[in-house]
Structure prediction request, 571 residues.
Amino acid sequence: MSLENELNHTLKKLKDIESALNESSIVAITDHKGKIQFANDKFCEISKYSREELIGKDHRMINSDHHSKEFIKSLWKTIKKGEVWRGEFKNKAKDGTYYWVETTIVPFLDEKGNPYQFVSIRHDITERKRMEEHMQDMAYLDPLTLLPNRNSLNKRISDGHMTNKLNDHVAVLFLDLDRFKSINDRHGHMIGDLLLKEVGQRLVGCLPHTGFLSRQGGDEFVIMLDQINNKQEVVSVIQNIERQLSFPFYIRNKKISISASIGVSMEYITTKSPNYQEFIESLMKEANHAMYQSKQQGGHTYFFSTPKQSFEMARNYQLQREIEKAFELNEYYLVYQPLVNLENGEVEGAEALLRWKNATLGMVSAAEFIPMLEEMGHIIPVGRWVISSACKQLKNWQNSGYHLNKVSVNVSPIQFRDAYFVNDIKRILEETMLDPKYLELEITEGVLLNIEVARKTLVKLKELGVNISIDDFGTGYSSLSYLKHLPVDTIKIDKSFIHELGVDGEIIVNTIINLGRNLQFTVIAEGIENESQVTALQQQKCDIGQGYFFSKPVHAKQFITELTCNKNIAN
Ligand code: C2E
Ligand code: MG
Ligand code: MG
Prediction:
């Protein structure tokens, strides 16, 4: 380095120092190895060391263990290059207390470009840091019990806080107090709150050192246990909790007894475990589910979630995630199953059935995904799409000259109860220009439980001119007298009765057909799989048949091909 360069370098450094300095500055100078050469009064004051104790000592004597190795490494990397480092540092004073400083370290380089001295200027920011920490604590603390709150648990999970090693078990305990609401109602919320506080304290006393307790809200607590070796360890924690809770609480001179329902899930950490957060979240769900089982048993007990449940929950979780995108990704489609006139063998129409093919899960059965669509509220838009597509399809077929006079679609009870349902149907009919008499809506007996509400909707639907059919007839355990009073056109005998034809199902099928005839309904038999069933139904004068014997549900194109190849499929 030339003299001029060196001077410029020093001047620039002095400017850095000057701009960082004021009367409250804590200043120290060390050599290149970090040995303290100079410390001002403020330095002595905050570090609580005398100047004699500092000079000649390694500067690291005031380091705390707060900062990571990476943090320290990157600091050294910066100053060894001759660059100024600025940042916040937690230091330790002589008496073991900690203080925070905002730090500027200015390195001085020799002619070879190696640092020979470091000047550090610090300012005390302990107060500000304390405030920040306090605010953070508050965000992660349940104000009532002063236990970690749900945020805190979530943070711990998302930080991947894991003292666990591979092949360790992790257990999650979901704990919900039994009949807590009645305690609140009987003794008031104040007592309820104090009880929760004391329960929290007793739970803390039951935790092993790897345990983490948080209050989820209400009377729910979650305990995470790391480094578990076997189920027995978890059971003893639970037994301890149950014992501790079995002693009555005395709150404001009131003796209160309480018990808890506990659900547990535990799992190995393996290399196959997905990311830690997902892994724990699914454990939480399982534990929650197991807790509900305890409740169903009347509470005051615990349940471990079984591998089968875990599997089902994991599957449900995955289904839910995939369903969220299924509509946008056009993963739904319809298949059609012919409705065959049993007298002349002609195909009169089709039932439209929804199918879902997902990129990762493959085909998912209707029995599995439809209840989930209902649970997630997606059945309304998807159901609307089904009806609209089916109507369009029939209109297309009719326009192409096929004499089909019925398309039936399944309507979920949730759709049926939706305030916009009748309007949606009206709009779809207008848009597709399908004559309403060709559309049949299949509802289940479950819809009719609230008969007065159902009646109103059915009447409005009839006013539109569509047909109503009762699907899976005979399985709903509802009173038959409703049939007389409702505007129903068709009943579909459930396939379970058809499958018993030839065993001992004749009487039931016969009865339903007679009932239908007397009330002037069209009767459809579904699930017909063989010729003898067809014959039996023909003898009993059932109107329409549907089932694998005629055709499985198929794509629209195939439906038409089969229809034209095999016009009289029943004969
Ligand atoms: P569902 O309305 O009673 O439909 C008849 C079911 O029986 C269909 O099952 C059909 O594939 C099946 N099936 C037809 N012929 C035979 C046969 O000969 N033997 C046997 N064993 N089964 C036969 P899928 O398609 O799996 O649908 C199951 C249920 O899912 C339907 O029962 C219906 O309740 C519901 N579903 C299907 N599509 C929709 C839809 O678009 N919306 C709503 N809400 N529900 C739907
Ligand atoms: Mg149906
Ligand atoms: Mg059915």
Observations:
- DSSP finds 21 helices and 21 strands in the chain.
- The mean pLDDT is 89.
- The first strand starts at residue 26 and ends at 31.
